[in-house]
Amino acid sequence: MTVSVTLTVNGQSHTVDVPAETLLVEFLRTRLELTGTHVGCDTSQCGACTVHVDGQAVKSCAMLAVQAAGRSVTTIEGLAAPDGTLHPMQAAFREKHGLQCGFCTPGMVMSACELAKRPGPLSDEDIRHALDGNLCRCTGYHNIVAAVRTGLAAMHDSGQTQAARSSDASAAAPATV
């Protein structure tokens, strides 16, 4: 069965007819050609497919596109400013070399951005625990944790931590699917 799905992705509204069983990750990659969201395991174990839905980090391989209908989705492509300026977390991953092959990086960055909603400073252990659902096969996570710490500080300095908390509060109302 084919259904019409309307959702906002990276600030742009899209209406697309898709089979009802289409996963959000497949919708983003094949229908919208946003290939920064990666498919790593298809079992929601690795976190490479992490996106934000109404301000919450979700694994898009575990969500149907129809479940995102009427909601706002942000992918890694949507974090940077329109002029190409990197989001503070993206810049921190680049600065601190929080990547090697780069396959896990989009999911790591998207999950790390959500940490800005947490109150108070986070320890390295807190960061590692929060990223537990994101797997990296190349690094020992040391540079990833350093990048997240730097990114969170930059988000705080630029006021983006409060914005993240506000978008979370406004997203608390359940969406109709």
Overview of this protein structure:
- With 177 residues, this protein is an alpha+beta fold.
- The protein has two domains: 2-78, Beta-grasp domain (Ubiquitin-like (UB roll), Roll); 88-165, Orthogonal Bundle (DNA polymerase, domain 1), CATH 1.10.150.
- The chain is 34% helix and 15% strand.
- The chain contains six helices and five strands, in the order E-E-H-E-E-E-H-H-H-H-H.
- The protein has helices spanning 24-31, 88-95, 105-114, 124-130, 142-157, 160-170, and strands spanning 2-9, 12-19, 50-53, 56-59, 72-74.
- The chain has a five-stranded mixed beta sheet with strand order 2-1-5-3-4, sandwiched between helices.
- Helix 2 packs antiparallel against helix 5 and helix 3 crosses helix 5.
- The longest helix is centred in the C-terminal third of the chain and has 16 residues, at 142-157.
- The radius of gyration is 16 Å and the shape is globular.
- The two termini are 16 Å apart.
- 38% of the residues are buried.
- Residues 165-177 have low confidence and may be disordered.
